[in-house]
Amino acid sequence: MYDAVAPAFDRHRHIPEAALEAIRAIILSFFGQASKPRLLDIGAGTGRIGLPFVAADDDYVALDLSFGMLRQFDQRARQRNHPLPRLVQADGQHLPFRDAAFDAVMLIQVFGGLRPWRKVLEEARRVLAYAGLIFVGRSISPTTGVDAQMKQHLATILSELGIKTKGGNSREDVLRWLEAEADSSGAIVAAEWDVERTPRGFLSRHQTGASFSALPEQVKENAIRQLGAWAEVTFGSLDQPVQERHFFELRFFALTKGASQNE
């Protein structure tokens, strides 16, 4: 599913370079300047978050189930003359690493549509060294913004077309599990930036989403047509720009209890 959308995946999901560097700096700040922590990025995708780690030659491993996503990651690194990234195609539920192999596990924007999350977390915990950290990150847009309104109305349209969308968001379940397992935890706003959004931009961006792309063509065309008509009435134009403030939230969880019993 993600292989098909990989070439266009990042086109409409831009995060500023300064924000990406800030995310990297905050993650590394937990380990001190002299150390070089072993980092595993589960669901690394096309490297939006990972490229700054690769550019700096950090001890960073990117893992994703989609070969297409990882191919885009590799191409982007080569185009920028970065060191070649260490890429692993594997299922997050079955990590091909020994116990306690990493000092930190990154789970960035992967839980929105992930259902077997418990096994992923158990595997992340297994490969985490003593006093290791799990980072869960996401971009946050305004709840009343263009994207939020259009996403909500699209769900209504799909429901009326007889398409059952995924109920709930596993992210909250993930956070509760991690809070219960962690010795300590916290949240940091790692970066914030201004974004100009338009209804047309949402239509273009959402069509490259993995879940939406998997729908039947007739359903997609019908839904986009209805959504576009609604947006023209609601916002006045598909090209009406709206300035929004976006944030990147980074949650961290210290899991000394997650150390391998064999260590």
Query: What is the spatial order of strands in the main beta sheet?
Result: 3-2-1-4-5-7-6
Unreliable parts: 3-8, 258-263
Structural class: alpha/beta
The helix/strand series, from N terminus to C terminus, equals HHEHEHEEHEHHEHHHE
DSSP strand tally: 7
Radius of gyration, Cα only, in angstroms? 19 Å
CATH superfamily caption of the domain at 2-142 and 168-196 and 245-258: Vaccinia Virus protein VP39
The chain-level mean pLDDT equals 88
Q: Tally the helices: what do you get? A: 10
From the 3D structure, determine the CATH topology of the domain at 2-142 and 168-196 and 245-258: Rossmann fold
Level of helix content?
25-40%
Outline type: globular
Major β-sheet, in short? 7 strands, mixed
Q: Strand percentage, roughly?
A: 15-25%
- What is the CATH domain class of the domain at 2-142 and 168-196 and 245-258? Alpha Beta
Defining traits:
263 residues, alpha/beta, Rossmann fold, 7-stranded mixed beta sheet, 39% helix, disordered N terminus, disordered C terminus
